[in-house]
Design goal:
The chain is of the alpha/beta class. It has 19 helices and 15 strands. The strands form two sheets. An eight-stranded mixed beta sheet has the order 2-3-1-4-8-7-5-6. A seven-stranded mixed beta sheet has the order 11-10-9-12-13-15-14, with helices on both faces.
Length: about 500
């Protein structure tokens, strides 16, 4: 197909149409390789198309040369970008340049950006400005804004695991000048003590409740008009020291229809960028403001803001994690439920510690005497060591199977996130881990000691508890609303 299209182009037959088809075809890697063979045999011809009288032909020539990516094309593309008089082609040249080491032309690109910024914007100049900004920011990432809204009254949405809203709300309302209410999947909180609320460890995400009402629409333009009229830009500016433009992205939640999500996000992004007098710039790679739209079925939409200028430092220790690592906020939630059973002189063990998230959260939750973590993965232990070091904690981390672990004294607490079946660990191996925990736990847990187990296999846990009556169940707390995970708090019956 590639050879046929190229032959038609060489013969001057329907060049525009065939160039469009050629561009579409070379999106596939195999077709691009085939085109490259043609290109290097007819290099001058394709470069010559940059001079073609038909702007659409030039447009597709630029795209093709950008896909070729030969470094010798950088100067050629930049010179033609400067000489191009058709406005709508300018942004195509810039998109192509992004694939080259274009930094040598950064001064010229900056100058062009300044010239366009000083002019009245048109549809095509706005697109060129956008592409220029991307190139400049790629080479020199933009300066971020400094958040300064800690002492203001802020309405917040704390996203929490379903079923635990009351728990997190109780923590929030323990902070002075803070009140709230529960909603499905979160807590709506009003506070003048943002710094304190921000430090609560059991929520998953913190969003600003900028527009505390349902917008009866799921159309991007309507939502954009509503939130701009409601004062979106002043709201963001009030919470930052600097007032220069903000980079943003749109995130749509509440539907599994990917096409609908993308359509809404695209329409809302375009409307905000076009109607914010240059104060909002759509840039998903460097954004500081996430405009999160949560769809409420046919009722409409809620809009919240996530401000990355207010960094979440709660779990800054977590440099390393694996696909099976526990979320730090979930580990913190486990420790909240465990607090009544903590002992200030406790010796603590995790026999499957992974990257040590659970142990770190335990160490940060309350005083203890000693804390140990085991794992059969050397890589996990190395990650755990680095994470614990960043947390400023001295945790004894040992690359060893729980089955081979011996210790001179028993432990007051055994905490663990139980392994689950993966591509590398089957059900039989997982059951072995459960049996190992209960068998070795019998030897390692002190009389009246407490065992806290996070499990995603309730049936297996119940079976093992029946097989090991030396343990008394104190609590069984659902950790997920859909019944897929539980926290078991158990106690050694021995006295």
């Amino acid at each position: 197909m590639i050879k046929k299209l190229c032959a038609e182009i060489y013969n001057g037959n329907k060049i525009r149409e065939n160039m469009i088809q050629l561009n579409q075809a070379v999106r596939e890697e195999a077709a691009l390789d085939e085109f490259l063979d043609e290109y290097y045999e007819h290099e001058d011809y394709f470069i010559g198309l940059l001079e073609h009288e038909d702007a659409k032909v030039r447009k597709n020539a630029v795209k093709l040369l950008g896909r070729v990516g030969d470094s010798t094309l950088l100067d050629i593309l930049f010179q033609h970008y400067q000489a191009e008089e058709t406005q709508f082609l300018k942004s195509d040249y810039l998109t192509a340049l992004a694939g080259f080491e274009y930094e040598v032309y950064l001064p010229e690109l900056k100058e062009r950006w300044k010239i366009l910024e000083a002019r009245e914007r048109t549809k095509h100049s706005a697109e060129e400005i956008k592409q220029l900004q991307k190139l400049i920011w790629k080479a020199e990432p933009p300066k971020h804004h400094k958040f300064c809204g800690e002492t203001m009254e802020n309405r917040l949405l704390l996203i929490v695991p379903r079923g635990h809203e009351d728990t997190v709300l109780k923590q929030a309302e323990g902070i002075p000048q803070t009140k709230g209410r529960v909603m499905t999947g979160g807590c709506l909180v009003t506070t003048k003590k943002l710094e304190n609320v921000r430090d609560i460890r059991t929520y998953q995400a913190l969003l600003f409740d900028f527009y505390p009402a349902l917008i009866p629409a799921s159309d991007g333009k309507i939502i954009g008009k509503q939130i701009l009229e409601k004062g979106l830009i002043p709201y963001i500016q009030e919470r930052h020291v600097e007032k220069h433009p903000f980079l943003f992205r749109v995130d749509v939640r509440g539907t599994k229809d990917i096409a609908a999500k993308n359509q809404l996000a695209k329409a809302l992004s375009a409307y905000l960028e076009e109607n914010s007098d240059g104060m909002l710039i759509n840039e998903p790679s460097f954004y500081e403001v996430e405009i999160r739209v949560i769809l409420a079925g046919t009722k409409g939409s809620r809009v919240f803001l996530k401000l990355t200028s207010m960094p979440d430092k709660r779990f800054s220790y977590r440099k390393y994690a694996t696909s099976t690592s526990m979320q730090p906020s979930k580990a913190a939630l486990m420790m909240y439920y465990m607090k009544p059973y903590f002992r200030p002189e406790a010796n603590i063990l995790d026999g499957f510690c992974g990257t040590a998230t659970l142990l770190i959260e335990r160490a940060l939750a309350a005083p203890y005497k000693s804390i140990y973590g085991l794992d059969i993965s050397e890589q996990a232990i190395q990650a755990a060591w680095e994470n614990s070091r960043r947390a400023g904690l001295d945790i004894h981390l040992i690359h060893r199977n729980l089955n081979d672990f011996k210790h001179e004294y028993k432990f007051d607490e055994i905490l663990t996130d139980m392994p689950r079946p993966t591509n590398f660990r089957g059900k039989d191996s997982t059951e072995y881990c459960y049996e190992l925990l209960f068998t070795r736990g019998r030897e390692l847990l002190a009389p009246q000691g407490v065992m806290a187990v996070y499990s995603e296999d309730g049936k297996l846990m119940e079976r093992k508890l029946a097989e090991h009556p030396w343990l008394k169940r104190i609590q069984r707390i659902p950790m997920a609303k859909d019944g897929t995970s539980w926290l078991y708090i158990l106690q050694n019956k021995d006295k």
